[in-house]
Amino acid sequence: MPTCIVCHLEIEENPNTLFKCTNEHPIHRKCLAEWLLHSQNCPLCTEPYSQNVLNQFEDELEQKEQEKQAAIDAEKKKEDFRKVEELANRIIFLKEIEEIEQLIDDNQYEDAIEKLLVLYNEGSYDVNDQKVLFLLGKANFLKGRFDLTINFLFKLVKLNFEYPDGFLYLGKAYEKLGLPDKAKWAFDRAKIE
Ligand SMILES: [Zn+2]
Ligand SMILES: [Zn+2]
Questions:
Q1: CA 41 – ligand 2 centroid, Å
Q2: Residue 137 to residue 165: CA distance in whole angstroms
Q3: How far is the CA of 69 from the centre of ligand 1 (A)?
Q4: With contact defined as beta carbons under 8 Å apart, do 137 and 170 qualify?
Q5: Do 135 and 151 contact (CB within 8 A), yes or no?
Q6: Cα separation of 146 and 138, whole Å?
Q7: pLDDT tens digits, residue range 150-177?
Q8: Between 3.40.50.720, 3.40.720.10, 1.10.1670.40, 1.25.40.10, what CATH number should domain 89-190 receive?
Q9: From ligand 1's centre to the CA of 73, what distance in Å?
Q10: Cα(19) to centroid of ligand 2, in Å?
Q11: What proportions of the chain, in percent to the nearest 5, are helix, strand and coil?
Q12: Model-level pTM greater than 0.85?
């Protein structure tokens, strides 16, 4: 009995199970079906399989191709869903920031800070964190907690050195605390726009 060039097991002499390349290298039907997904040439001698052989695998190859496509489609759907979810989260975040900015405009600093701390502790992605840190600095400044302003705004400018408004409130807080040198340093950074 011939042995398969792929799996090295014996093959029954049967046209349904035994296939051969043009150089007569024996291969199992299932081994060849797997192999044809990668190549149409014999794994041993690299001669192309005859059209007659390939024709007998058309259905299997098409099915495999469809399975592959279905997997790609499913992956894409998952990716689309993830993007929509991310966008929805972003919209929710922006809405919350809008409400918080309104609270600050209405001098409701306690409420604004409380909401900001929730977002701060959630630790959303960087761009969001920066806005949260800035508003925490600003609201605490307006509330008169200059030490906390400095604390939050230092975290902010460490993340993003190009945040003029962050430096502006940092400078104002230093000024209030009677630290003119540090205030000047921050105000100088605030001018870069
Ligand atoms: Zn085999
Ligand atoms: Zn061969």
A1: 8
A2: 10
A3: 27
A4: yes
A5: no
A6: 9
A7: 999 999 999 889 999 999 999 999 999 9
A8: 1.25.40.10
A9: 32
A10: 10
A11: 65, 5, 25
A12: no
Domains of the chain: which residue ranges?
Answer: 89-190
99 phi/psi in degrees, rounded to 5: -60, -40
* Residue written as token pair 């390939």: 54
d(CA 44, CA 26): 10
CA–chain centroid gap for 34, Å, is 33
Cβ 121 vs Cβ 114: under 8 Å: no
Residue 122, φ and ψ in degrees, nearest 5:
-70, -30
Report in angstroms the alpha-carbon separations of 28 from 12, 24, 33, 38, 136.
Answer: 9, 13, 8, 16, 70
Q: How far is CA 53 from CA 18, 21, 22, 29, 129, in A?
A: 11, 8, 10, 10, 61
DSSP secondary structure code for residue 41 in this structure: B
Model pLDDT for residues 49-100, shown as the tens digit of each residue:
999 999 999 988 888 889 999 999 999 999 999 999 989 988 988 999 999 9
d(CA 60, ligand 2 centre) in Å: 21
